[in-house]
Amino acid sequence: MARGNYIDRMEKKALTIILASPRGFCAGVDRAIQIVEKALEKYGAPVYVRHEIVHNRFVVDSLKEKGAVFVEELDEIPDDGRPVIFSAHGVPKSVPEAATRREMFYIDATCPLVSKVHREAERHHKNGRQIILIGHEGHPEVIGTMGQLPAGAVVLVETAEDAAAVAVDDPDNLAFCTQTTLSVDDTADVISALQARFPSIEGPHKEDICYATTNRQEAVKAIAGRSDAMIVIGAPNSSNSNRLVEVGKVYGCGKSMLVQRAADLDWDWFDGVGTLGLTAGASAPDVLVEEVIAAIKAQFDVTVEEHAITNENVIFKIPRVLASC
User: Fold this and answer.
1) What is the pLDDT of residues 18-33, one digit of tens each?
2) Residue 89 · residue 114 · CB < 8 Å
3) Cross-strand pairs, 177
4) 66, 39 in Cβ contact below 8 A?
5) Which CATH number covers residue 129?
6) Which terminus of the chain is more solvent-facing, meaning fewer CB atoms within 10 Å of its CB: N or C?
7) DSSP string of 242-261?
8) In whole angstroms, what is the distance from residue 199 CA to residue 229 CA?
9) Which residue range(s) make up the domain with 145?
10) Exposed/middle/buried for 303, CB within 10 Å: 0-12, 13-18, 19+?
């Protein structure tokens, strides 16, 4: 048996995996998943969830198996008195208003860092400023943030080119906010373009891009130059995961790709790869990282090296209604 293992190791090509840290779940995602699980524990199934609680199919399917029912809109939910949970990305004000009119029992799982952006936008609007939101059109977080205020109060830009062309009501009475899951570097370019065009524009008291997004991007920057290729584990509709792929490419690892599961791995893609960078987006559970590593170990003689840039100890409290669970 020992000899067989020795032969296997001799036949397998050596591969070093540099495991980026921090990676995977952030505090907001962990809190949102806990909210669904604790609601199921306290109230039983079904519990309805408006939109994917987080952008990860494995997580969503796991919660479905426990009794969560995912819908896109409230009109898909019967008037049966069951709990309704709003996703971590946040929702427009019209959604809780509609839930209240129908006397629904709802629990808001919006990430506190997204809620912070909502409050900033409200504060600027109250002070008479038009808001420029930096973000990706159609993303649930952007829809939720723009939906905190009346139509026209928030205008969206995605790029520095957009910032140079955006039409505003009063150039001297503006503020900006950002989606929390953007590329730190790209957003800095957009902010610079806005500030060059509108010198009096007001920004947030504290940067809107969340700590987890920033940390995961910095961790990728730290290993990209040492990696022949990089894999980011995450969903195609996950903004922060897609940004990690972009950061990897910009910082020296042009061969960077997104995968959801180990089954998505293409072994031909590994040709010429001696060192692989590996990370996971903020909505990807660590079990998927372990799954991918196990699949790679079946093909290669693997050495895993973890590269940590910081330790995260952020915890967000769950709503009081579920705190006793």
Assistant:
1) 999 999 999 999 999 9
2) yes
3) 133
4) no
5) 3.40.1010.20
6) N
7) HHHHHHHHHTT-SSEEEESS
8) 41
9) 117-197
10) exposed
Question: Following DSSP, what letter does each residue of 65-82 receive, concatenated?
Answer: HHTEEEESSGGGS-SS--
Catalytic-residue membership of 141: yes
**CA 194 to CA 68: how far, in whole Å?**
42
- Burial state string for 5-19 with b = 16 or more CB within 10 A and e = fewer than 16: eeeeeeeeeebbbbb
Choose among 184, 289, 286, 284: nearest CA to 243: 184
- Quote the mean pLDDT of the chain: 94
- B/e letters for 57-86, b = 16+ CB within 10 Å, e = fewer, are ebbbebbeeebbebeeebeebeeeebbbbb
Annotated catalytic residue: which of 65, 73, 141, 161?
A: 141
- Do 265 and 280 lie in a common domain? yes
Which of 197, 219, 252 finishes a domain? 197
d(CA 167, CA 161): 12
Name the residue type at position 201.
I
Number of domains in the chain: 3
- Amino acid at site 244: L
Q: Are residues 60 and 90 in the same domain?
A: yes
* CA triple 110-108-235, angle to 5 deg: 45
Percentage of the chain lying above the pLDDT 70 cut: 97
**pTM beyond cutoff 0.90:** yes
What six digits make up the tokens of 43? 């109230």
Sequence-distant contacts of 309-314: CB under 8 A, at least 24 apart: 309/21, 309/22, 309/215, 309/218, 309/219, 309/222, 310/22, 310/215, 310/218, 311/22, 312/22, 312/26, 312/27, 312/211, 312/212, 312/215, 314/26, 314/27, 314/211, 314/212
The span from the CA of 125 to the CA of 131, in Å, is: 7
Q: How many residues does the chain have?
A: 325
